[in-house]
Amino acid sequence: MNPQDYQQIPVKLIDVPGGRRKVDPDWVAALAEDIGRQGLRVAIQLVEAGGRYRLIAGAHRLAAARALKWKDIPAEVKPADAFADEAAMKLAEIAENLMRRELSALDRAMDVAAWRDVYERAQGAVKPGRKKSSQVEKIEDADANTLASHRFSESFSQAAQRALGFSQPAVYRMLQIAKLDAETRERIALTKIADNQSSLLALVDLAQDLRGRVLDLLMSEPPQANSVAEAALLAQGKPAARSKDDHFKSTINKIRRLDRSQKFSLFDALETEIRVWAERRGWTA
Protein backbone atom coordinates (compact mmCIF):
# COMPACT_ATOMS: atom_id res chain seq x y z
CA MET A 1 0.00 0.00 0.00
CA ASN A 2 1.47 3.36 -1.08
CA PRO A 3 0.85 5.93 1.71
CA GLN A 4 0.86 8.74 -0.86
CA ASP A 5 -2.33 7.35 -2.43
CA TYR A 6 -4.42 7.54 0.75
CA GLN A 7 -5.49 9.89 3.51
CA GLN A 8 -5.23 9.35 7.24
CA ILE A 9 -8.81 9.65 8.50
CA PRO A 10 -9.80 9.87 12.19
CA VAL A 11 -11.52 6.62 13.13
CA LYS A 12 -14.08 8.48 15.24
CA LEU A 13 -15.38 10.30 12.14
CA ILE A 14 -16.22 7.12 10.23
CA ASP A 15 -19.80 5.83 10.19
CA VAL A 16 -20.80 2.30 9.22
CA PRO A 17 -24.20 2.34 7.44
CA GLY A 18 -27.00 0.18 8.80
CA GLY A 19 -27.96 -3.05 7.13
CA ARG A 20 -24.39 -4.20 6.56
CA ARG A 21 -23.50 -7.82 7.20
CA LYS A 22 -22.53 -8.52 10.78
CA VAL A 23 -18.84 -8.19 11.60
CA ASP A 24 -17.26 -11.50 12.67
CA PRO A 25 -15.46 -10.93 16.02
CA ASP A 26 -13.02 -13.80 15.41
CA TRP A 27 -12.07 -12.35 12.03
CA VAL A 28 -11.65 -8.93 13.62
CA ALA A 29 -9.34 -10.40 16.28
CA ALA A 30 -7.31 -12.26 13.65
CA LEU A 31 -7.00 -9.12 11.50
CA ALA A 32 -6.00 -7.06 14.52
CA GLU A 33 -3.16 -9.49 15.25
CA ASP A 34 -1.96 -9.38 11.67
CA ILE A 35 -2.32 -5.60 11.31
CA GLY A 36 -0.54 -5.12 14.62
CA ARG A 37 2.44 -7.08 13.25
CA GLN A 38 2.44 -6.15 9.57
CA GLY A 39 0.43 -2.95 9.32
CA LEU A 40 -2.66 -2.38 7.17
CA ARG A 41 -2.05 -3.83 3.71
CA VAL A 42 -5.21 -2.54 2.01
CA ALA A 43 -6.79 0.82 2.84
CA ILE A 44 -10.49 1.04 3.61
CA GLN A 45 -12.79 2.92 1.22
CA LEU A 46 -14.86 5.91 2.36
CA VAL A 47 -17.08 8.59 0.90
CA GLU A 48 -17.35 12.10 2.29
CA ALA A 49 -20.60 12.75 4.17
CA GLY A 50 -21.01 16.26 5.54
CA GLY A 51 -17.86 16.56 7.59
CA ARG A 52 -17.84 12.86 8.38
CA TYR A 53 -17.18 9.74 6.31
CA ARG A 54 -19.32 6.78 5.31
CA LEU A 55 -17.73 3.36 5.02
CA ILE A 56 -17.93 1.76 1.58
CA ALA A 57 -15.48 -1.13 1.99
CA GLY A 58 -13.45 -2.50 4.88
CA ALA A 59 -15.77 -3.06 7.86
CA HIS A 60 -13.56 -5.75 9.39
CA ARG A 61 -10.41 -3.68 8.85
CA LEU A 62 -12.08 -0.70 10.50
CA ALA A 63 -13.22 -2.84 13.44
CA ALA A 64 -9.68 -4.21 13.78
CA ALA A 65 -8.26 -0.68 13.81
CA ARG A 66 -10.72 0.23 16.55
CA ALA A 67 -9.71 -2.87 18.50
CA LEU A 68 -6.10 -1.70 18.23
CA LYS A 69 -7.25 1.74 19.44
CA TRP A 70 -5.95 3.48 16.33
CA LYS A 71 -6.85 7.14 16.16
CA ASP A 72 -6.45 7.33 12.37
CA ILE A 73 -6.68 4.78 9.56
CA PRO A 74 -5.46 4.93 5.93
CA ALA A 75 -8.40 5.33 3.57
CA GLU A 76 -9.24 5.90 -0.07
CA VAL A 77 -11.69 8.79 0.15
CA LYS A 78 -14.19 9.56 -2.60
CA PRO A 79 -15.96 12.94 -2.81
CA ALA A 80 -19.64 13.15 -1.89
CA ASP A 81 -20.65 13.50 -5.56
CA ALA A 82 -18.82 10.33 -6.60
CA PHE A 83 -22.11 8.45 -6.41
CA ALA A 84 -25.26 9.60 -8.18
CA ASP A 85 -27.57 8.61 -5.36
CA GLU A 86 -28.02 6.36 -2.33
CA ALA A 87 -28.70 3.35 -4.54
CA ALA A 88 -25.38 3.77 -6.37
CA MET A 89 -23.57 3.98 -3.04
CA LYS A 90 -25.30 0.83 -1.82
CA LEU A 91 -24.36 -1.00 -5.01
CA ALA A 92 -20.71 -0.11 -4.43
CA GLU A 93 -20.94 -1.57 -0.92
CA ILE A 94 -22.52 -4.77 -2.21
CA ALA A 95 -20.02 -5.12 -5.08
CA GLU A 96 -17.14 -4.98 -2.61
CA ASN A 97 -18.40 -8.23 -1.09
CA LEU A 98 -19.63 -9.98 -4.23
CA MET A 99 -16.99 -9.10 -6.82
CA ARG A 100 -14.22 -11.21 -5.45
CA ARG A 101 -13.13 -14.75 -6.24
CA GLU A 102 -12.95 -16.93 -3.16
CA LEU A 103 -10.12 -19.45 -2.92
CA SER A 104 -10.91 -23.01 -3.93
CA ALA A 105 -10.07 -25.82 -1.51
CA LEU A 106 -7.00 -26.56 -3.65
CA ASP A 107 -5.88 -22.91 -3.75
CA ARG A 108 -6.28 -22.65 0.01
CA ALA A 109 -4.32 -25.85 0.61
CA MET A 110 -1.42 -24.68 -1.57
CA ASP A 111 -1.35 -21.27 0.13
CA VAL A 112 -1.34 -22.86 3.59
CA ALA A 113 1.46 -25.23 2.57
CA ALA A 114 3.52 -22.31 1.27
CA TRP A 115 2.78 -20.32 4.43
CA ARG A 116 3.81 -23.30 6.55
CA ASP A 117 7.09 -23.59 4.59
CA VAL A 118 7.90 -19.93 5.25
CA TYR A 119 7.02 -20.38 8.92
CA GLU A 120 9.28 -23.43 9.24
CA ARG A 121 12.19 -21.69 7.55
CA ALA A 122 11.91 -19.03 10.23
CA GLN A 123 11.12 -21.31 13.18
CA GLY A 124 12.75 -24.60 12.23
CA ALA A 125 11.06 -27.66 10.76
CA VAL A 126 9.32 -30.20 12.97
CA LYS A 127 10.72 -33.72 12.85
CA PRO A 128 8.63 -36.83 13.58
CA GLY A 129 9.53 -38.89 16.62
CA ARG A 130 8.81 -39.59 20.28
CA LYS A 131 8.86 -36.66 22.67
CA LYS A 132 7.75 -36.13 26.24
CA SER A 133 6.34 -32.63 26.63
CA SER A 134 3.79 -30.21 25.10
CA GLN A 135 0.69 -31.12 23.14
CA VAL A 136 2.63 -31.56 19.90
CA GLU A 137 5.43 -33.59 21.43
CA LYS A 138 3.05 -36.02 23.12
CA ILE A 139 2.04 -37.36 19.73
CA GLU A 140 3.95 -40.60 19.37
CA ASP A 141 4.99 -42.05 16.04
CA ALA A 142 3.24 -39.20 14.23
CA ASP A 143 4.10 -38.41 10.62
CA ALA A 144 5.72 -35.12 9.61
CA ASN A 145 2.45 -33.55 8.46
CA THR A 146 0.72 -34.34 11.76
CA LEU A 147 3.49 -32.66 13.74
CA ALA A 148 3.81 -29.77 11.32
CA SER A 149 0.07 -29.13 11.33
CA HIS A 150 0.05 -29.09 15.14
CA ARG A 151 2.92 -26.64 15.36
CA PHE A 152 1.67 -24.38 12.58
CA SER A 153 -1.93 -24.19 13.84
CA GLU A 154 -0.73 -23.49 17.39
CA SER A 155 1.23 -20.48 16.14
CA PHE A 156 -2.15 -18.71 15.76
CA SER A 157 -4.42 -17.47 18.51
CA GLN A 158 -7.70 -19.28 19.12
CA ALA A 159 -9.59 -16.44 17.42
CA ALA A 160 -7.35 -16.64 14.35
CA GLN A 161 -7.72 -20.42 14.20
CA ARG A 162 -11.50 -20.08 14.17
CA ALA A 163 -11.53 -17.21 11.66
CA LEU A 164 -9.05 -18.78 9.24
CA GLY A 165 -10.13 -22.40 9.74
CA PHE A 166 -6.65 -23.26 10.96
CA SER A 167 -7.46 -25.98 13.49
CA GLN A 168 -4.90 -28.78 13.58
CA PRO A 169 -7.10 -31.31 11.72
CA ALA A 170 -7.97 -28.70 9.07
CA VAL A 171 -4.31 -27.77 8.53
CA TYR A 172 -3.39 -31.45 8.34
CA ARG A 173 -5.95 -32.03 5.59
CA MET A 174 -4.70 -29.01 3.65
CA LEU A 175 -1.09 -30.18 3.91
CA GLN A 176 -2.18 -33.59 2.62
CA ILE A 177 -3.92 -31.98 -0.35
CA ALA A 178 -0.79 -29.94 -1.09
CA LYS A 179 1.02 -33.23 -1.79
CA LEU A 180 -0.80 -33.48 -5.13
CA ASP A 181 1.65 -33.34 -8.02
CA ALA A 182 1.88 -30.26 -10.23
CA GLU A 183 0.34 -31.99 -13.26
CA THR A 184 -2.76 -32.98 -11.28
CA ARG A 185 -3.10 -29.51 -9.80
CA GLU A 186 -2.90 -27.97 -13.26
CA ARG A 187 -5.54 -30.33 -14.66
CA ILE A 188 -8.11 -29.75 -11.92
CA ALA A 189 -7.58 -26.03 -11.35
CA LEU A 190 -10.79 -24.05 -11.98
CA THR A 191 -12.89 -27.25 -11.96
CA LYS A 192 -15.40 -28.42 -9.36
CA ILE A 193 -12.88 -30.99 -8.17
CA ALA A 194 -10.56 -28.21 -7.01
CA ASP A 195 -13.19 -27.03 -4.54
CA ASN A 196 -14.19 -30.45 -3.20
CA GLN A 197 -11.98 -31.34 -0.26
CA SER A 198 -13.17 -34.95 -0.08
CA SER A 199 -12.32 -35.50 -3.75
CA LEU A 200 -8.92 -33.89 -3.32
CA LEU A 201 -8.07 -36.08 -0.33
CA ALA A 202 -9.23 -39.15 -2.26
CA LEU A 203 -6.93 -38.20 -5.16
CA VAL A 204 -3.98 -37.91 -2.77
CA ASP A 205 -4.45 -41.56 -1.78
CA LEU A 206 -4.15 -42.80 -5.37
CA ALA A 207 -0.96 -43.80 -7.16
CA GLN A 208 0.00 -41.17 -9.72
CA ASP A 209 -0.69 -43.31 -12.80
CA LEU A 210 -4.11 -44.31 -11.47
CA ARG A 211 -4.78 -40.68 -10.52
CA GLY A 212 -4.35 -39.64 -14.15
CA ARG A 213 -6.80 -42.28 -15.39
CA VAL A 214 -9.29 -41.29 -12.70
CA LEU A 215 -9.15 -37.68 -13.86
CA ASP A 216 -9.66 -38.79 -17.46
CA LEU A 217 -12.95 -40.40 -16.41
CA LEU A 218 -14.09 -37.54 -14.19
CA MET A 219 -13.25 -34.82 -16.70
CA SER A 220 -14.54 -36.47 -19.86
CA GLU A 221 -17.61 -35.05 -21.63
CA PRO A 222 -19.91 -36.28 -20.27
CA PRO A 223 -18.20 -37.51 -17.08
CA GLN A 224 -17.97 -41.30 -16.90
CA ALA A 225 -17.95 -41.37 -13.10
CA ASN A 226 -19.57 -39.37 -10.32
CA SER A 227 -16.82 -39.59 -7.72
CA VAL A 228 -13.13 -40.32 -7.30
CA ALA A 229 -13.95 -43.66 -5.68
CA GLU A 230 -16.21 -44.71 -8.57
CA ALA A 231 -13.67 -43.55 -11.16
CA ALA A 232 -10.90 -45.47 -9.39
CA LEU A 233 -12.92 -48.69 -9.63
CA LEU A 234 -13.69 -48.14 -13.31
CA ALA A 235 -10.06 -47.24 -14.09
CA GLN A 236 -8.98 -50.59 -12.62
CA GLY A 237 -11.57 -52.53 -14.59
CA LYS A 238 -13.78 -53.14 -11.58
CA PRO A 239 -17.54 -52.59 -11.60
CA ALA A 240 -18.64 -49.32 -10.04
CA ALA A 241 -20.50 -49.84 -6.79
CA ARG A 242 -23.46 -47.67 -7.76
CA SER A 243 -25.93 -50.37 -6.72
CA LYS A 244 -24.68 -50.04 -3.16
CA ASP A 245 -25.58 -46.36 -2.86
CA ASP A 246 -29.13 -46.97 -1.68
CA HIS A 247 -28.00 -49.62 0.78
CA PHE A 248 -25.35 -47.25 2.15
CA LYS A 249 -27.83 -44.41 2.60
CA SER A 250 -30.26 -46.78 4.30
CA THR A 251 -27.54 -47.94 6.69
CA ILE A 252 -26.59 -44.37 7.58
CA ASN A 253 -30.20 -43.49 8.28
CA LYS A 254 -30.55 -46.51 10.55
CA ILE A 255 -27.43 -45.51 12.49
CA ARG A 256 -28.75 -42.00 12.94
CA ARG A 257 -31.94 -43.39 14.45
CA LEU A 258 -30.03 -45.33 17.12
CA ASP A 259 -30.07 -43.94 20.64
CA ARG A 260 -26.86 -42.70 22.27
CA SER A 261 -25.95 -45.97 24.03
CA GLN A 262 -26.55 -47.99 20.86
CA LYS A 263 -24.30 -45.66 18.86
CA PHE A 264 -21.54 -45.97 21.45
CA SER A 265 -21.81 -49.76 21.28
CA LEU A 266 -21.45 -49.54 17.50
CA PHE A 267 -18.42 -47.24 17.82
CA ASP A 268 -16.83 -49.71 20.27
CA ALA A 269 -17.29 -52.49 17.74
CA LEU A 270 -15.68 -50.35 15.03
CA GLU A 271 -12.95 -48.83 17.22
CA THR A 272 -10.05 -50.04 15.06
CA GLU A 273 -11.56 -48.65 11.86
CA ILE A 274 -12.50 -45.39 13.56
CA ARG A 275 -8.94 -44.91 14.83
CA VAL A 276 -7.51 -45.46 11.34
CA TRP A 277 -10.08 -43.04 9.86
CA ALA A 278 -9.31 -40.39 12.50
CA GLU A 279 -5.54 -40.72 12.00
CA ARG A 280 -5.91 -40.18 8.25
CA ARG A 281 -7.61 -36.87 9.00
CA GLY A 282 -4.95 -35.77 11.45
CA TRP A 283 -7.11 -36.22 14.54
CA THR A 284 -5.23 -37.18 17.69
CA ALA A 285 -6.31 -38.09 21.20
Automatic annotation (TrEMBL):
Annotated Gene3D superfamilies: 1.10.10.2830, 3.90.1530.30
Domain of life: Bacteria
Cellular component GO terms held in the UniProt record: chromosome
Name of the protein described by the UniProt record: ParB N-terminal domain-containing protein
Bilayer-spanning residue ranges: none
Originating species: Stappia albiluteola
Lineage start: Bacteria, Pseudomonadati, Pseudomonadota, Alphaproteobacteria, Hyphomicrobiales
Biological process annotations from GO: chromosome segregation
Domain ParB-like N-terminal: 7-98
